[in-house]
């Protein structure tokens, strides 16, 4: 498990990319057979106010977003975005678990899933997400830990 870095990794031109995605420190997605899963978690203030409003996302120093994108790379290195079923949770150090509710967002040929969550300043959270790509008969685990910081603190 690596540290997460924010970067734009979408198929749309940079000017069209509205929500940042991330890859692991090694700049590689998680690979499960024919599928690659890209994931990130970041403070919701990283999103422009107009984008947050358009997608009905709360933009606040105490709110974060998990972003998941799934690509089928069976026929090409770049792959094709696929829909998926996702469920998951986030836990704090006290092992208090809160379910994540993902909403599907489509921008042209790109499909990604967003889940909002709250956090305290300097809070370490553990994410555990199951991803079942369309056309797959199984779910794949995505697990990572990340510390979050409130803007202005």
Automatic annotation (TrEMBL):
Residues 31-151 form the DUF4426 domain. It comes from the Bacteria. This is DUF4426 domain-containing protein. It comes from Endozoicomonas montiporae. The lineage of its organism: Bacteria, Pseudomonadati, Pseudomonadota, Gammaproteobacteria, Oceanospirillales.
């Amino acid at each position: 498990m690596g540290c997460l870095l924010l970067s734009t990794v979408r198929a749309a031109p940079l000017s069209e990319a509205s929500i940042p995605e991330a890859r692991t420190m090694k700049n590689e997605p998680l690979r499960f057979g024919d599928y690659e899963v890209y994931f990130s978690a970041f403070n919701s203030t990283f999103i422009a106010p107009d984008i947050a409003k358009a997608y009905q996302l709360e933009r606040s120093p105490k709110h974060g977003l998990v972003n998941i994108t799934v690509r089928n790379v069976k026929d090409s290195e770049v792959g094709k975005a696929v829909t998926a079923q996702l469920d998951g949770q986030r836990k704090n150090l006290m092992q208090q678990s809160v379910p994540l509710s993902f909403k599907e967002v489509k921008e042209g040929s790109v499909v990604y899933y967003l889940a909002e969550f709250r956090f305290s300043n300097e809070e370490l959270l553990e994410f555990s997400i199951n991803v079942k790509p369309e056309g797959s008969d199984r779910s794949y685990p995505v697990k990572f830990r990340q510390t979050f910081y409130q803007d202005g603190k």
